[in-house]
């Protein structure tokens, strides 16, 4: 009897060890929602990370002027997407929440400042934050099954950067993924730190030099970091394939500090809010 029990216990322990050390690392890339064709993606915990609009939300009137840079993929520059006051408030409420930014590679989270050197902060959902979430949703036409992910601020000091990557997130599983990105600048008292898209073409009009770095020697285009403004783009074609042209980087900050805000929208067909 005792021997049998010992054998069962041993078997059990060996199974657990086997699972932890052998199977789980093998399965992890398949279980994870953050695999991204070998490209680093930002840490993300699914359902907790999505926000749901509140019916009784009252937001101040705010207008901004969209400038379409490209229709395929859709890339739109939004000067004054945030007011200066909103940008300042977000910098202030993020200040105590910063932690080193991580990357995901084949489903495994890691810290590698040669790929991504910045700090990230999950923003508490103040009234202003909720109104910005609502603005991002409104801009996208209140699309069915599209949910805003909780907002993250990213802070870059001198040497801070993020190498070229896609924001795709998950693909597959009913087309779920990060359908769109708003890259918003909250604080840009810096040199460098632009957002570089090597595979997007410079538009012919010089007017774009107000928003793009026309002196840059880099291939493609670089949006200048400007407080309050945003770059919006869509990550997928209608057939669910990703746009290679959305490959982008946060160029190194040379002097000063840049704080950015990521607003990602997820297409989650059939997903409904969890009642709390
Ligand atoms: C990362 O950024 C910090 C803060 O700006 C800087 O001091 C450091 O040198 C950078 N490290 C790398 C590896 O780029
Ligand atoms: C911006 O940077 C300049 C020069 O480094 C500094 O004097 C100024 O106080 C900064 N402004 C803000 C709002 O941080």
From TrEMBL:
InterPro entries: P4HA-like, Pro_4_hyd_alph, Pro_4_hyd_alph_FE2OG_OXY. One of its GO terms (molecular function) is L-ascorbic acid binding. One of its GO terms (cellular component) is endoplasmic reticulum. The chain crosses the membrane at residues 12-31. Keywords: Dioxygenase, Iron, Membrane, Metal-binding, Oxidoreductase, Transmembrane, Transmembrane helix. Residues 73-266 form the Prolyl 4-hydroxylase alpha subunit domain. Its cofactor is L-ascorbate. Gene3D superfamilies: q2cbj1_9rhob like domain (2.60.120.620). This is Oxidoreductase.
